[in-house]
């Protein structure tokens, strides 16, 4: 017993140190005063230390029954720390410039893969661990596939070495994104909660809830869309607004996975909402030569369609989950809003203001927003209570960061496999060939390629790659340049919510507590309109203001009428069996709306049939609420 006390004390110190390094190293790396860190270390050293310390923290804090399992976890955690130091020394030496599959590097790569898989199993579940193993195996055996999907031949030793020391894989850009920007915004979310900001937003949401159903969901769509418009980063937005919007939806009875999915989808669409549209729109102006004002104006109608449909869905979901008992209980708790709550807008305003200085200011905005939240907390809740809140929030915060860092490293394997095997390029080369036979088929393959290219990349990076590789092929097939570039931008950013990477869904799952798979599936299901709208304006370019004033007015009117009819048919209290019965008719009519035609009588015929189906459903409504079973 006497020996166990010092060991436990040392264990707590090591765990605390690992937590501090995992959480604060990205802040120091982003601030980097006078370039002290970047001048002495390379980014690979930073990523190696961040990853291995995060893995060790995962092993140290994981629960395990039995003495043997406990000592195994401790041994794995210590091994991760030693491996991190060795990797940092290697990347700081001249040998890192000439990567050769030596026995030492192969051993290090194998140990890193094993430790990452074990930490992923403990932190994110066995499904994620099996996904990493499956993708690793696929990347190697792809060389034995038949054309056009066969990869470049590679030896097993070179393949394993590349996954750790080749610039992608475990220490690639996927890890860099999570270990810098995302980590900083997790800290901001924790500081915002500790300062009382989340409680203030929750009070506002409860007050608004008394005026109608679905307010929490609708407010999430609108606020996340507006914030994502400025930030240009779906993941950063989730980790900012999601800290209160997800909890607000959960309070109204929305399941954890669905709440996270709604936040992830809403944050994603904000990246293409004018007038700001993040950094990607400015890049598009440079690539295409189209003035930025024209791009923002062209993106207005598709963005508005997505927002309107997602807001409409909030009403239907509210009737599923917001029972009268829940709303009534919340009505009893409503209190008058205090002007003091306005101070909680300061951290958000700080982030929005700093982000306007450019894409590189994203990390600085999160850091300054965190400082602003702590300052507001000092004045509103007091130093003592703020310290108590921070101590309570700290364990879950560092655990979340560690899990996301390990998951990002594993998901980086997916990006590396695409780059090494050339599967993404193979799909791109098929677009022109198949486009000669079917434009729709070509659009489908372009969408798939953009999703693959966008995996693990920020939106601006997605557009640089997808806009260069994919958009010219669509333009050659007759798609107007603005429609082609917006098409690849939409599907590139949708990788933020589409498995297997789905960084925005991954961040939302960490906040909601639901599984990554459940959250990503909910985000795709709730944000289905974002997958449909690009096909609408690719087949009907008038929706992006390409064409005569009459064509633009016709397409806009058709889209508006279709949205009203669809909202009436699928919203409100319409019974589930009515929705299932009308679904085939709605699908057929939608085809009439999007098929190119001269004159536009097909579109008007589609609107007429859709209106008739809507009236038929509305005339036979079930007046019972649509309850979830």
Offer a quick outline of the entry.
The chain is mainly alpha-helical. It has helices at residues 4-31, 36-40, 43-61, 67-91, 103-124, 126-141, 156-165, 173-194, 197-209, 215-231, 234-251, 256-269, 280-288, 292-298, 300-321, 324-333, 345-355, 362-380, 383-421, 423-435, 439-453, 459-469, 471-476, 481-493, 503-512, 516-526, 528-539, 549-570, 576-594, 601-619.
What is the distance, rounded to the nearest whole angstrom, between the alpha carbons of the first and last residues? 53 Å
User: What percent of residues are in strands?
Assistant: under 5%
Total beta-strand segments: 0
Low-confidence stretches: 328-335, 571-577, 621-629
What integer is the average pLDDT?
Answer: 77
User: What is the global morphology?
Assistant: globular
Major sheet details: none
**Tally of helical runs:** 30
Question: What does the oligomeric state look like here?
Answer: single chain
Q: Secondary-structure element order, as H and E?
A: HHHHHHHHHHHHHHHHHHHHHHHHHHHHHH
Topology:
Elements: H1 4-31, H2 36-40, H3 43-61, H4 67-91, H5 103-124, H6 126-141, H7 156-165, H8 173-194, H9 197-209, H10 215-231, H11 234-251, H12 256-269, H13 280-288, H14 292-298, H15 300-321, H16 324-333, H17 345-355, H18 362-380, H19 383-421, H20 423-435, H21 439-453, H22 459-469, H23 471-476, H24 481-493, H25 503-512, H26 516-526, H27 528-539, H28 549-570, H29 576-594, H30 601-619
Helix pairs in contact: 1-3, 1-8, 1-19, 3-4, 3-5, 3-19, 4-5, 5-6, 5-7, 5-19, 6-19, 8-11, 8-18, 8-19, 9-11, 10-11, 10-12, 10-15, 11-12, 11-25, 12-25, 12-26, 13-22, 15-27, 15-28, 17-18, 20-21, 21-24, 22-24, 24-27, 25-26, 28-29, 28-30, 29-30
